[in-house]
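The aim of this short unit is practical: by the end, you should be able to scan a pair of folded records and say something sensible about each. We start with the first protein, listed as its amino acid sequence and then its structure tokens.
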Amino acid sequence: MAGAGPAGGRRARRALWARRALAIATACVGALGAACRAPESPTSAPASGRELPIWGEDFSPAPEGSALRGSDVSPEHSFVADPRPFTLGDRLFLLFEAFSERSGLGQIWLAQSRDAVHWEHFQRVSVQEGHMSHPEVRVLDGVVHAFYNVNQGGVILHRASPVEGFPQWGEESAIFRGIDHAWHHLVDFTFLQAEGRWYLLGITGNGTKVDQWIRGLVLPAFGLDWTRAAEVTPNPVARLAGAPWLAAIARPFGAGCAACLAGRWFPHPLLDVADSPWIVGINELTALEIGPRPVLLMGARDLDSGLRSVTAFEVSELGPSGLRGHWLSEGFVLPLGGPGWDEQDVHRADVVRFGDRWVLAYDANRLRRCPRPERGCWRIRFATMPYGAAGPRADDAR
């Protein structure tokens, strides 16, 4: 056979590598234009969004004694954070992170309530050992889907339970790995549906500065395998890393190699909050679909004060080619240190309708009198507002 023997094998291998090198070079040349285009700077639109139930001053904080603490989960848990409320029938459920002093790791737990004040039936959801955080939930077609992040590897895990008889969790499995898409790491994530498509949005960065990027993947329908999902923004390196043969080459070199490619050579995030004049980094991301347009609640740190709380970004357009939108305010939507809001550090908030009211759940770090300030004294607090009461605030009447 022509080409047989050692020499033929070497020629075939050289031809294969030449084709691969040409494919990479072609893609990179085409990438340069997209890579040099910076993401559009989001703009502020302070006059919009006032009808949404996201402004802390419109809510009534629940009594201090109603806060959920680590000791409510078990004696071995020191703090709780990352609340994700959802409803089934007349019950309010809460997915959250609980930190175990015994293992030194975060775990994902579930609790339920009939009044958003008293919580019971605590149940661990995460199975694997590893630091778990940032739970997400979707209820679709009679199934509750729980997702959460394994911080060390940028992996998203999933468990599901039928609504009938909830909770009856199935097996735990991975649906996303950052290395498969050349994401340097994954801080937090959320899902968003727009025009029939499903988007996975994640906070990441390039490993050299404060986390401030949001990147995205898209699937034509809801699914549990994001391995081959398309990158939302024109990020050619992510597309290359999605090719099976290139992923196989890059994987042995680890996330650092992928970060070098995607984060440093061709940085093109979906949204770069460095374009905002008042934010330094983001570490939480929650999609709300409770108004005419989706809103992304983000935990962010203020550039001037250094304080951390939640801000809001309204999405005006989201498609396979990108995202457009604006900040609803150049400031936090949740007050810090106000009456009933006796906290100085907040990094995640979520809102859900529960009967005739809105329930706001947020995690808060009590910095004063905290015995372990290096780890924090995180707990989950709640606030409520009658359904339909949201509207223009008094200072917007002019």
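Turning to the second protein, read its sequence before its tokens, just as you did above.
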Amino acid sequence: MHGRSSRVDFPTPTIMVKSNTDSSISDVASGELSLSEVLEARRLFKRFWPITRLVEAESLSRLTGKTVYLKLENDLPTGSFKPRGALYALSTNRTKGVREVVAFSTGNHGIAVAYSAHLLNINATIVLPHNANPVKRQKILRLGAKLIEHGRNSYEASIVAKQYARDHGAYLLDDITNRHIVVGSATIASEILDQAPSVDAVISPIGDSSLIRGIAGMMQLMAPGVKTIGVQPKNAPTYYEAWKKGLPTDIRLRKTMADGLSTPKADLENVRVLSHCVHDIVLVSEQQMLSAVRHLLIEEHVVSEPAGAASTAAVVALNSTEFQNIVLIVSGANISPEVLRLALRTTGNTLKKS
């Protein structure tokens, strides 16, 4: 279930270079990104899936008094944005002789690595924490990857994955530090600029930070007037706290239904990138995310997991007259039945403007 057919759907775009950039320059760098790599990634993805849709969320436009669009990353084959980075990274490194990949994940990155490895005929091993979302766990197994379960969170799972890579000579695809992952995420911003040239802000969830680094870096490169705003759960504000202080800080994580946004530790280099290219970061509660899941399903006919609905919760909570045309990243739809039932039991208005 996705956006209603009555809503405006933008035509399939051509790859566009904004006028404030000299398109004759073949390789324009912005931190972790180069334009040539982003365009190369878009050409690669065209072989495997259509460009994800960008649709106006009429109910959210009415609620906020702004024009609000949804970038439907749940359109992708695994139900999240993650195949962009995984496929580009594996495709790039396959030419270097990679025959096995290992990754650690709370779920969506693991699915994406398993999916991409399957496409490219590469063996995959995924390490998940013991309490992983059962929907995501089953998708990994169905894609033929070997599954290892270890620890309570992604950091503890990462220890096993890194050791596995050393012991087996496997390629470790770490979406916290791998720059090809960021290039994959940057293609989302490239598509948005084609689909909604009038955009002045993008709201993106922050988990390991690769999604927002790609989007914000690409906007800084191609359309510096477009601001990127991050969103994290109040129960897992790892990068919010690090972004405020300018360096990683120890925090106590509480349980969150947005498992994909729960990151135990912030990476220092990633914090430095965010400090230069992210305009603001908003925190949302568990109830706000559940309400956003329900709102997207009932009002927009879009299925989203709590992490994917976080940007919807944020746009309603955002008290700003600065932006009029806002794109929300719906980053994933792999919601467990239990959380979906919880969201549907949410009473009253699905979302309220504060």
